[in-house]
Amino acid sequence: MLAEGGKPVPSIRHRIVALAIPKVLKSSEVGDPDQARLAKLAAHANADTAPPKKLVTGCEVSLIDGHGFPIYDLKIRGTSPQRSVIYLHGGGYVSHADRVHWKYVVRLARRLEARIIFPVYPLAPEFTWRDSNPELLSLFEHIAIESPRGVTLAGDSAGGGYALSIAQQLALRAGPQPTHVVLISPWLDLTNSAPGIAEASARDPWLKLSWLRLYADWWAGGDELSRAELSPLYGDLSGLPPTLMFCGTRDTLHPSCRQLAERALEQGWDLTYVEEPDLLHVYPILPIPEAKRALTLLVDFLG
Predict the structure, then answer these.
(1) Is 73 helix (H, G, I), strand (E, B) or coil?
(2) I need a labelling partner for 51 at 20 to 30 A (CA). Which of 16, 103, 107, 116 fits?
(3) How many CA atoms lie within 13 A of 173 on its CB side?
(4) Backbone φ, ψ for residue 247 (5° rounding)
(5) pLDDT higher than 60, residue 6
(6) Per the confidence metrics, is the pTM higher than 0.90?
(7) What is the DSSP string of 253-282?
(8) What domains does the chain contain, in order, with CATH numbers?
(9) Is the pLDDT confidence value at 5 over 90?
């Protein structure tokens, strides 16, 4: 839908989701960090990280062993995919994948005729980036050997930032490289210092800066937040493959996405940046009409 003058207007379903999110998630600022930590530890202790059976009907799902944490291998039953997508889920590095993530990766498997590799990487506050980073680099090399048409690195939110960080580290090493990277509202800067981020957060019904700062500290485990493995916005952009990045402007993270797009232009990196006015964080994976448009762009991008 277009408003008078041609500016896109979010769909009715998007507006309903935007109203529902703060109520469902009970969005608020951080109160007691120690209580927040205990709550996360309890949630992780009781978490079932397996894909919901109803959502993967029609799929073949198995586990890849040998990497220290569960990694699911998913494809549409009866297919023999020649390419793979390693998908890193969002959740602020503190929450496991939810039903929305699983629905999305099943759609990717179907539309791309691809094998989806879905790591259940260990989360903060129990773990830091150092507990999964080497294993994800090793996983990529393992999957690349088995993928004649190559491997795409993809992720949303925290997972999007992690996917870009892994791509940057691979670019500095000899060996196989991703053919493409796909970033969905990526968390690129754990310093959370982009100009305009406070104003963006004030418009975002979902992401609160106080929580992002707490989660960033947990995930860093005492390391500098600006190091490239944590904040790929500041990492080396040379040698990266063609990349597609989505972000809406009603998203706390969109100022840092703009910064990345500006750096890409300056340095000649092939980054396609799709910015949608007034759309929410990770809008391409939400159950809204705008997500269909984003998926079509993604499929076309990957060819």
Answers:
(1) strand
(2) 16
(3) 15
(4) -165, 145
(5) no
(6) yes
(7) THHHHHHHHHHHHHHT--EEEEEEEEEETT
(8) 31-302 (3.40.50.1820)
(9) no
Q: Residue 57 CB: number of other CB atoms within 10 A?
A: 9
* 115-119 and 59-63 beta bridge pairing: unpaired
pLDDT tens-digit map of 49-67? 999 999 999 999 999 999 9
* Cα→Cα distances 17→11, 78, 287, Å: 10, 35, 9
Is the bond preceding 125 in cis, omega lying within 30 degrees of 0? yes
Which pLDDT score, from 0 to 100, does residue 7 have? 65
Segment 231-239 mean pLDDT: 97
Question: 242 phi and psi, to 5 degrees?
Answer: -55, 135
Distances (CA, A) of 66 to 63, 129, 133: 10, 18, 14
CB 231 within 8 A of CB 188: yes
* β strands within the chain, DSSP E: 59-63, 71-76, 84-88, 115-119, 151-156, 180-184, 243-250, 271-280
> Residues 6 or more apart from 215 whose CB is under 8 A from it?
92, 93, 94, 124, 158
Amino acid making up residue 196? G
Do strands 59-63 and 271-280 pair parallel, antiparallel, or not at all (unpaired)?
unpaired
If pLDDT is split at 50, 70 and 90, which confidence band does 23 have? Answer: confident
Spatial distance between the Cα atoms of 10 and 291, rounded to a whole number of angstroms: 11
Per-residue model confidence (pLDDT) at position 27: 66
Tokens of 108: 């990717």
Tell me the C-alpha distance between 282 and 285, whole Å: 6
